[in-house]
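Repro:
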Amino acid sequence: MKIAMLHDLYIPLDSDGVSGEDNLVKLEIGLLRKLGHEVIDLRRYAVGIQRKILQATVHVGGVGRVPKIKKGFVDVIHSHNLNQISGYGWLKEIEVPVVQSLHNLRSFCPISIGWRNETHCFDCIKSPLSVIKNRCGGVYGMSGSIRHLVTQRDRPQISKSRRLIASSHMMKDLFSKIYDAEKIDVIHNPGIPDTPIELDQFEERWLYAGRFVHEKGILDIVRNWPDEEKLDIAGSGPLESQIRNEIKNRSNIQMIGTFKSDNRKIYGRYRALIFASTWLEGSPLVVADAISNGLPVIAFGNSAVKEQIDISKGGFYCGKEITLIRLRLAFQQVRTAGLSLRKQCQLSGDNVLSTSFWIREIVNSLERAVA
């Protein structure tokens, strides 16, 4: 196939750290080319005032800029993030089949995360006026609501795509409210194993890795963390100073900064990854990466991490709410399972969470769109 890959980068291609979406698109392009497909790479990034102008145009009107893609030039377009430069207006006129990957809830939520006042919110599925009523997202939310309310009420990102790719059944169920479920393919994100890790060389420590924001559950983890266990916190974000204040008298919890997405050997140092996202993440990459590298996952919250654990058998889902008792019981389960659990994690990285399984499913979805 000849495939056009359309994606607006969050940060430049030559940046050391890439976002999850940027990373997935880069991975997909490389794997498709290895399989012999011709990929037209249309990833773009704008800087400075030009970026601000393009973002405003896209947020309010959904009208962006895309290279001219004529019928016959490619067989199919696979689009990812369209919210920086590309916009959604071109979807109304394009004759080439389009497959849209769903990385967030932007198609019906003006602020993209379906999250308000520390709980889920899907009011805008029924009416985008809700973003004004609920005062979501300030100027950002208001600009997005104009597109949903006025300029593109038909949601072209969804309605004009031949097929959608959701990273979990949870995401598929959500988008089935506004799109034909038969045309939504569920493809869980892959993990990327590093060079083989010695499974028995871990320390008696546990790891949190992610953004320091309320919906990631990091404060709940810290506040319920048992004194007898050691926790390393990797990441950054707006709650950093609050977290430092919470742990200033707790020597068993330390912040270790951020680590690059390609530094996966770090997973081999820990007993398990603690994941507690309370909003509806489709298929967290850090979870797939951890499991594929032999690190079990202890999960709480509402994200689709439960699906990742179910298909990989690589950890334990312990319910929506974090408590001290539940944490201690989970630690006991991980220790009882021992090396067999870590071996199962690595095994899943070779099959259900492998990049080869993932790219095969993506090719199938693209072929269905062409057919």
